[in-house]
Design a protein that fits this description.
Blueprint: E1 5-7, E2 22-24, H1 27-38, E3 42-47, E4 51-56, E5 61-66, E6 69-74, E7 80-87, H2 104-130, E8 133-137, H3 139-142
Parallel strand pairs: 7-8
Antiparallel strand pairs: 1-2, 3-6, 4-5, 6-7
């Protein structure tokens, strides 16, 4: 499932960070990075450079959320819009279906869902404080 690899941008000047050390953790992230790199409306982008602290309800501890992407988009009229973007399968955006009993798989999926919700809530607040927007991109938006 995971395909950790180094990404080499065609337009390194657009990357906000070290363009020789861009790590992609999935083919979906690679697809989104390609889109950012080649889209003329994307002025700047970075991958896992924005870190947001969040309280995880599963262990009641503070953790660090490394958001997949931070992008700056040129809008019509010359304004710039900032987004934090998480690339995730759609199945992780909805609660797992209860199979009738608490299987190990169901418990693991439930804990992951709870943790993701806490991360995304923290990211939404982080963006709101800065006038940015938080987006979750799934296989639907990636055209898969």
């Amino acid at each position: 499932m995971f395909h950790k690899r180094l990404y080499k941008p065609l337009h390194p000047e657009k990357y906000a960070g070290n363009p020789t050390n861009i790590i992609m953790r999935s083919s979906w992230e690679t697809r989104f990075a390609n889109w950012c790199d080649q889209n003329p409306s994307i002025l700047k982008w970075s991958s896992e450079e924005t870190v947001i602290p969040y309280l995880c309800p599963t262990d009641n501890k503070i953790h660090r959320y490394f958001v997949d992407f931070n992008i700056q988009v040129a809008q019509r009229g010359g304004t710039i819009k900032r987004y934090l973007v998480e690339v995730k399968p759609a199945k992780y955006c909805i609660p797992p279906e209860y199979p009738g009993r608490q299987t190990k798989k169901y418990i693991t999926e439930s804990m992951t869902y709870i943790k993701n919700q806490a991360k995304w809530k923290a990211a939404t607040e982080y963006c709101k404080d800065r006038g940015w927007e938080f987006k979750i991109i799934t296989e639907k938006e990636l055209g898969l």
